[in-house]
Give the backbone structure.
Amino acid sequence: MDIGPAAFPVAERSLAVIESAPVGRRYHRLLLDAPDLSARSRPGQFYHLLCRDGAGNGPYLRRPMSIWRCGAGEPLGFLFHVKGKGTAALAGLRAGDALSVVGPLGHGFTLDPRWQRILILARGVGLATLAPLTGAAAGMGIAVEALLSARARSDLMAAEFAGASGAQVTSVFDEDGSSDTARVEALLRARFATVRPDAVFTCGSNRLFLLLQRLATEFGIAGQVALEQQMGCGLGMCFCCVRQVRDAEGKVVNLRVCAEGPVFDLQAALAW
Amino acid sequence: MVDLSVRIGSLTLANPVMPASGTFGPELSQVFDLDALGALVTKSVTPEFRAGNPLPRLCETEAGVLNSIGIPGKGLDHFIGQAMPEWRRFRAPLVVSLSAPTVASFAECAARLAATPGVAAIEANISCPNLEEDGRAFAMHPEPAAAATAAMRRAVGGLPLWVKLSPNTGDIAAVARAVAAEGADALVVANTILGLAIDIETARPKLGSGMGGFSGPAFKPIALRLVWQVAQAVRIPVIGVGGIATAEDAVEFLMAGATAVQVGTASFVSPTAMLQVIDGLRAYCARKGIARVGALTGAALPTALPAAAE
């Protein structure tokens, strides 16, 4: 019987930090050395990270973190808002330190090879979750158009989002009012009326999720949303990360974000 | 070569390490071969569908976790029809945790499980609220705990019946004696201890349903003490659970009188924790020149009771 690591899709592994650096004023990026794990990770999946700094300090439970960078020959990357105890400990890691990861976990985004173009709508650090879609789509010959919403120009991470994918990025901001829901709706309507995407994707904002859900229904466009939730085990065993989702018959049921998600059909998900 | 096998009544386990109910599922087979475990223990099965408690269902503390999940599940029919075929893929003995709101319901569900192929034992979760006792858990007092045990004992025939005790009682030895007297084959000691955390910004409990069960490393000394007390009160095997994360923790529980151990919250932090405990037990026995892990059971007890597994 094959009992090697390859027999098991999810690994618990201590990985070496290649790079740990702040991004702007509030964000941080980590790159980890994990050739095999990175190669089998998919955009929209996540890892469960043991958030301990170099001195071993950090919260008791792991923290779920969506994949920012992955792929064959690429380091495994995470981009996050330094916000609480867990992310502060992660930001305290230095190159050469070890980080225990469990993953890859969950169901990621789906891309249909028949699609010509997709549109991504992201708010804040939600763009990190959607970033690996740009490269995956480019690799399949699917054009990517993105609308990124941020508090201020200094918070926008357009380069971190698009990488070398050639995604066409439009940015809106709270500081000049361009991120206002009505103005974002007008922008989206104009795009849908001229260059209609085959699918839309979002993460990071309840307000933008509701807007995109409504417009996607109106225009008959398929969509996917990546949801977040506090987690215990990350594997589907503890049932603490449930969210309300509509099942195939339209009934509202509790589904585990870790196991049935974190990516859900845009129309099945409910506001949070 | 160390013999890790242990006997729990009529059931022989390849090793003394198994998951704690509620912290385990077939999902863990994504990480390692579950047949490496001494036994598999399901989440508590309930007679009917349960949606579970409001969120948040989990709250972290310095060295542990409060939970109030609410035993969500699709009910016994679904378990027998849909979940059991998946569990039967594994060769390790399957222990089905059962929770029910009345004595009669415990007996009825236990009988159905006893008639289900692939069930190696029932673990009765009598820490759940008893609807006939104003919602107080069966396990809080000897009489309701004994009544539920007696009814299940009659219902399951020769199927091994384990009863999981609660730390939320003033005299666990009395509850243990009452349950053992009604024919339980083993006692699982113990469930989570009731706790609370408050969000001082909102002046609300941090858990959606208020109080919750506390588990994890900070609970270990209390669970160990409970095992120590129960092991001296009864002659049936005790399965220790509460804060076990390492082989050293497991050895402590065995020495306090446990024949086997369950690992729960530690699997959230390290999904391979149970494998590490098994490997560590083997290494500990080898280092100490102990041929059989069963020899550790009760080694630290002040009285020279024969080990329950002998």
About this structure: The mean pLDDT of chain B is 95. The first strand of chain B starts at residue 6 and ends at 8.
